[in-house]
Amino acid sequence: MYEYTTSVIQWSVWALLLWPQHLTASTPLDCRDDQGSLSRCTSISQEKLLDRVIHHAELIYRVSEELCSLFEELFIPFPFRLQSNQAAYACITKALPIPSSKSEIQQLSDKWLLHSVLMLVQSWIEPLVYLQMTMERYDHTPDMLLNKTKWVSEKLISLEQGVVVLIKKMLDESTLATVYSDQSVLQNDVQPEVLESVMRDYTLLSCFKKDAHKMETFLKLLKCRQTDKYNCA
Questions:
Q1: Most CB within 10 Å of its CB: which of 9, 18, 116, 226?
Q2: What pLDDT digit, counting tens, does each position of 82-99 carry?
Q3: Whole-prediction pTM value?
Q4: Which residues form the signal peptide (predicted)?
């Protein structure tokens, strides 16, 4: 119990020191106006909007790394951490037609890069809300863990709005087809055992971190193609 309490204190102090940096460094990407339209972002130039979207994706990935590390330190015994690396098949976005290898990603068109980011973003909005709900049922869950999860969830919605406007600007597309992931893992009326619930949430966080890195990578590749089309590795 002493080790757990010490761990919580250490992580809380560390996170509190870093947390304001995320907030002050964040560039606003709230596209919706009072009527619910995305007009706030339509007046921004394509170049600046892409920069803001990339910055948002960078922050989301950075905080997702912190979330995974904090969750591991607080709830996951070391032997179980190794299992998460072998659980890629359990990721809820596994069925999405999005390549993982570097060579395949390089061959994606700008259109497919953007739509892949949008698919990933939209696939994670509901699972992150679910994650907040389940973690609130834990005993002694630090507020910092809950706040970070809520922050990422809110920023993901802002990222979705920015990507939607970016697609309209770059591809001149006014309608979008939403592709949903297989979220059967979230549909369970029976309350799981504590360890099962913790491991399931840990898998969700690990998968989200992996997909958040994909979002950032795809957007940066798109940015590179706008400036140096033939030297984007």
A1: 116
A2: 565 555 447 889 889 998
A3: 0.79
A4: 1-26
